[in-house]
Amino acid sequence: MAKYVYGPVPSRRLGQSLGVSPIPEKTCNYNCIYCQLGKTTNFTNHRKRFFNPKDILAEISEAIRQERKIDYITFVGEGEPTLSSDLGILIEGTKKLTDLPVAVITNGSLLSLETVRAEMRKVDVIMPTFDAGNSKLFRFINRPHKEVRFNKLVTGLKKSRLEFNNELWIEVMLLKGINDSVETLEEIKGFLDVFHPDQVQISIPSRPPTEPWVTIPDSESLNLSKLILQSTQILPLNEVGTFDSRPFRTPKEAILSITKRHPLQYTQALEIIHQFNIDNPEAYLNMIVSKQMVKILDYRNSRFIYRNEVWDSNF
Ligand code: SF4
């Protein structure tokens, strides 16, 4: 089973996205209050080689060879992908393998480094996050590593725009009572005017956030934010599309692999199990839950399946 590549999975912004994770589980230089992957366990701002890039490229090559429907190859993973010092080699290697567009979903913090911006030159879409227009709110929402500064984040995004011809899509995560007031949105807009992104996408915490007190904004704030930020898109709560279970040998393997990077809605998990012609998908899912491989979380009248952190990933 693939270790670094997963999917293609349906993505709210990239259609059927083949995810590539060049970093170990929850390795990040942020610890965002809304993160859907839980608290950052490997809190670092140090770039390094985590895995052999040849192994990752071999898995990408194999996924392409299988001719599954892929709209984008997306470097994302289980934290911040730019922490991998091999990202440039991986992007370059992927471009040699295929004409498919390549995207990088990043928190943007390391774009202030010239090396990181240079590595991004061949990427088709860079997708950084920008949730706050001042340092205090940035630290409150994103809880960055002490070496990450708001002014460096701003500098990196400004330079990225100036140096690249590729697409820059900025995502703003909107949180009720935290960054959805007119003043806060206008402050963010002031920076977006400087960054000149090709798209501004507003997101809301669609899955259980790390901090339970984080909630989604009401529809009035959402409409207001769309106007003030001149957003091109409010991202839908759920993805449209299907999970491809063909790369997996069993439903258990599919559910554990996907939930490692991507919490599933309960119905999505059942659909995946169903693809293996299991008679009673619900009973099968309950069996995985009872063995504590995954856990169920209820959030906003929906049910989600999360991989249990205590479960050894080397299943
Ligand atoms: S949301 Fe992204 S940047 Fe924030 S802690 Fe989670 S993985 Fe890191």
Roughly what fraction of the amino acids lie in strands?
15-25%
Question: What is the level 1 CATH name of the largest domain?
Answer: Alpha Beta
State the end-to-end distance.
11 Å
Number of strands: 13
Low-confidence stretches: 310-315
Q: Give the tally of structural domains.
A: 2
CATH-assigned fold name of the largest domain: TIM Barrel
SSE arrangement:
Layout: E1 5-11, E2 15-20, E3 27-28, E4 42-43, H1 53-65, E5 72-75, H2 87-97, E6 102-106, H3 114-119, E7 125-128, H4 135-142, H5 150-163, E8 167-173, H6 182-195, E9 199-203, H7 219-228, E10 233-234, H8 251-261, E11 264-265, H9 266-274, H10 281-290, E12 294-299, E13 302-307
Parallel strand pairs: 2-5, 3-4, 5-6, 6-7, 7-8, 8-9, 9-10
Antiparallel strand pairs: 1-2, 11-13, 12-13
Helix pairs in contact: 1-2, 8-9, 9-10
The protein binds iron/sulfur cluster.
Commentary on this structure:
- By secondary structure, this protein is an alpha/beta fold.
- It has two domains: 230 residues, TIM Barrel (Alpha-Beta Barrel), CATH 3.20.20.70; 57 residues, Arc Repressor Mutant, subunit A.
- Helices cover 34% and strands 18% of the residues.
- An eight-stranded mixed sheet has the order 1-2-5-6-7-8-9-10.
- Strand 9, helix 7 and strand 10 form a beta-alpha-beta unit.
- The longest helix has 14 residues.
- The radius of gyration is 19 Å and the shape is globular.
- 44% of the residues are buried.
- The C terminus is likely disordered.
- The site of iron/sulfur cluster has 10 residues, from loops.
